[in-house]
Amino acid sequence: MAHYERLSAQDASFLVFEDANSSAHMHVGGVSIYDGGGLTAPGGGVDIEKIRAYVASRLHHIPRYRQRLVQTPLEGEPVWVDDDRFNVRYHVRHTRLPRPGDDRELKRLTARILSQRLDRSRPLWEYWIIEGLQGGRFAALTKTHHCMIDGVSGVDISSVLMSLEPVDTFDPAPTWAPRPAPNQVELARDEIGRRLAVPGEIAAGVGRLLRQPWLRGADLRANLESVGKTLGVAWRGAAKTPINRPIGPHRRFDWTHVELDAAKEIKNALGGTINDVVLTTVSGAIGDFLRRRRVHVDILDFIGAVPVSTRNADDHSMGNQVSAWLARLPIAERDPARRYAEVGAITAELKRTGGSNAAAYLYQLAEWGGPAALSGVVALTRRMSPCNLVITNVPGPPFPLYVLGARMLEAYPQVTLLEGQGLGVAVFSYCGRLQFGFNADWDLLPDLHDLVRDVERNFAALHAFATGVDDATDSADATTSSAGAISPKGNEHAR
Lesser CB count within 10 Å: N end or C end of the chain? Predict the structure, then answer.
């Protein structure tokens, strides 16, 4: 029997965004660095064939990774079908740095790989193994299209490859046979059936909506207030800054890390959350960075989109279940204590009013209205330009993870750039560190590493205030030494 799966409106929106701007790359992922472990091949290097066999043995946990997109004949709606030409060697790729490679060279290569769009005719993911790093280390770079995974809490290739202990052996890949794809006649028949069923679906959806508890009393007022505030911020649009201009296809990628215990000391001393620490640090860094660009930050409404997962704790399905807070970041505030207090008040208000719900209503309308309605939602979003950058913070495990016998030492996430946003910041906590990944447009941020240094300095200043210990110099030195060779000019670091 023919089999296919429709994309949700939110998943399909990332394809529409990518189609609307040839410079947009709607993939998420990141770079992780490993010791050689049991994956060192005879004579050096990495045993890539063992890695490919291991990846193949785990793909049954994520069926989407062996599916590709086709379009329906009438409305051009994308649907998933099994890829009858699937070849794991295409997706698991192998390259190397000139030995001994350092982090600066790895950042350059990462940026070049992230600058390439995924091939829509194949399953929308790549897993790059990069060998040649100093000390026998290697890196793994993941690229997965945003239409497959939300980047906040979904299941991706990295999560199914990781284990809590090093292992050397694994079961062979189970037998897999692609299910037959529907022909154009079957797809057209189903399209017509769905269009005819829309009035009934709308009526049932409205009925379910009216029975929701948040539509009564104070909950209703809070949700209407949330929607009104979110739409008001979006309608005014993001402030015009040097990093909010049309983006090109080329990327820069950089990273740094700070100690998670230091972040906990801040939030324990001042109240709030780790997310408040991240937002305060990034806000201060953005303010410093823009001042050097001679921007009058005191008059800007600088909006950060903070993704928030809407996924149930026991839901490990693929696809997007995520919305976003739109938060005015206090980039003009130089004092770290006052800036932290402002961020805490902003996030508390967003939590109180349920500020993450508004976008879900638009995507529900798009589900009922089909591709034309979805295109309208995307066009409205692009025209409003509701935020200046995306800042996502994903909690990870405090214990080490392994791919076969190789221990993951570091992991730096990547968030996609939206139209008119030259910078995206993603944070991942792992093994006692907060690890920052910075994705940027090549032309808009040639000085990206200066911003990375601003993040390090602002975190150190916030920690010094919270603990009464002036550790700014020690923190910067520690980060510099851990990041590999850094040139005298910071903005040369990742070029």
Answer: N
Q: Report the sign of the C-alpha dihedral through residues 91, 92, 96, 97, in that order.
A: positive
Strands (E) across 233-342 are located at: 251-259, 303-309, 322-328
Locus of tokens 């050096």: 44
Q: Rounded to an integer, what distance in angstroms lies between the CA atom of residue 445 and that of residue 290?
A: 11
Q: How many residues does the chain have?
A: 495
Instruction: Give phi and psi for 163, each to the nearest 5.
Output: -140, 165
Q: Could you report the per-residue pLDDT of 237-272, keeping only the tens digit for each?
A: 678 899 999 999 999 999 999 999 999 999 999 999
Angle between helical axes of 336-353 and 448-467 (0-180°, round to 10):
90
Q: Is 419 exposed, middle or buried (0-12, 13-18, 19+ CB in 10 A)?
A: middle
Cβ distance 294 to 492 under 8 Å?
no
Provide long-range contacts, Cβ within 8 A and 24+ apart, for 14-20. Answer: 14/145, 14/146, 14/147, 14/320, 15/69, 15/78, 15/147, 16/374, 16/375, 16/378, 17/378, 17/382, 17/418, 17/419, 18/117, 20/378, 20/379, 20/382, 20/419
Cα-based distances in Å from 52 to 46, 371, 424, 466: 11, 37, 31, 47
pTM: 0.84
Q: How far apart are CA 399 and CA 380, in angstroms?
A: 43
Give which of 18, 240, 233 is closest to 119, Cα–Cα.
Answer: 18
The angle that helices 184-210 and 358-384 make with each other, rounded to 10 degrees, is 120
- List 25, 27, 91, 146, catalytic entry: 146
- Can you read off the two tokens belonging to residue 386? 């509701």
Catalytic: 146?
A: yes
CA–CA dist 454, 423 (Å, integer): 14
Element (H, E) at 185: helix 184-210
62 near 157, Cβ under 8 Å?
yes
Q: Pick the closest to residue 435 from 33, 27, 3 (CA basis).
A: 33
